[in-house]
Design goal:
The chain is about 25% helix and about 25% strand. The chain has helices at about 5-15, 70-75, 105-115, and strands at about 30-35, 40-50, 60-65, 80-85, 90-95. A 5-stranded antiparallel sheet has the order 1-2-3-5-4.
């Protein structure tokens, strides 16, 4: 089961990036962002389960990633996913880090989010 430390290690090993803690009052809310353009491609949070549709207020870890709108609509209907907590619900999805989503799927979605938010070169600069 992937946890927040696994995700942070993966991001560092794959992209050479470290999670940042932009809000001192909530140090467990960490942003994954590009160094070059500062765009976010992931957010790690710990939130009460009810905020993402669970029947308990037990605090869980959640990873928000950016997605294609069609993919977001499809994923919201699957176990382990919820409309993005505190983000645009068309372009972002929350992945509940509770073991209900396969590890490989989490990493694929994180990679997809990274690719969606990376700065693209202008066509004339290739």
């Amino acid at each position: 089961m992937v946890n927040r430390e696994d995700i942070k290690n993966y991001v560092f090993e794959t992209y050479g990036l470290k999670a940042v803690q932009p809000w001192p009052e909530t140090p467990n809310n960490e942003v994954l962002r590009h160094d070059s353009n500062k765009k976010w491609f992931g957010i790690l949070m710990d939130i009460p389960g009810r905020k993402v549709g669970l029947s308990s207020d037990e605090v869980i870890d959640v990873l928000n990633v950016k997605c294609d709108p069609q993919m977001t609509a499809l994923l919201k209907s699957q176990p382990g996913f919820a409309p993005a907590y505190h983000m645009n619900k068309v372009h972002w999805i929350s992945i509940l880090l509770t073991g209900s989503v396969p590890d490989e799927t989490i990493y694929q979605l994180l990679d997809f989010s990274y690719d969606l938010t990376v700065r693209r070169r202008a066509k004339g600069n290739m």
